[in-house]
Specification:
Distance between the termini: 36 Å
Oligomer: single chain
Helix content: 55-70%
Order of helices and strands: EHHEEHHH
Number of helices: 5
Largest sheet: 3 strands, antiparallel
């Protein structure tokens, strides 16, 4: 199984996959909409995840008529939601591990209290703009 974040494609190949001109990808990068990784020689390298993000951007702009500013906001919101989902999954795993079958000594906090403490330390306010 391959790592979805691992760079796979140079700009020409990524552009061919997405049916856009390589200059379009350079423009999106200049605007901060995408951030491909770079080799030591500064060659842009796109992962499968990058290609999917660009395809999502193209669907928003081409098919749904969203302008680039709106698409940027939507993509940032999506990334933030995915990050929050990972945080919640981590917190749930922590609570499951802490609460599995061990008796708590008198006065020890419950997994529910641990969840609140962990959430207070890990979750950040959403800054979409």
């Amino acid at each position: 199984m391959t790592d979805r974040g691992k760079p796979l494609y140079m700009i020409g190949v990524a552009a061919d996959l997405l049916k856009v001109h390589p200059q379009t990808l350079r423009f999106y990068e200049k605007k901060g909409l995408i951030q491909p990784s770079r080799t030591e020689g500064r060659t842009r390298m796109y992962s499968a995840e990058d290609v999917e993000d660009i395809a999502r951007l193209l669907r928003l702009t081409r098919d749904l008529g969203v302008n680039l500013a709106g698409a940027e906001i939507l993509l940032k919101m999506r990334r933030r939601m995915l990050e929050m989902q990972r945080q919640i999954e981590n917190l749930l795993e922590y609570v499951r591990e802490e609460g599995e079958g061990r008796p708590r000594p008198r006065g020890e906090r419950s997994p529910r209290e641990a969840l609140v403490r962990a959430a207070a330390g890990q979750l950040r306010p959403v800054d979409m703009f």
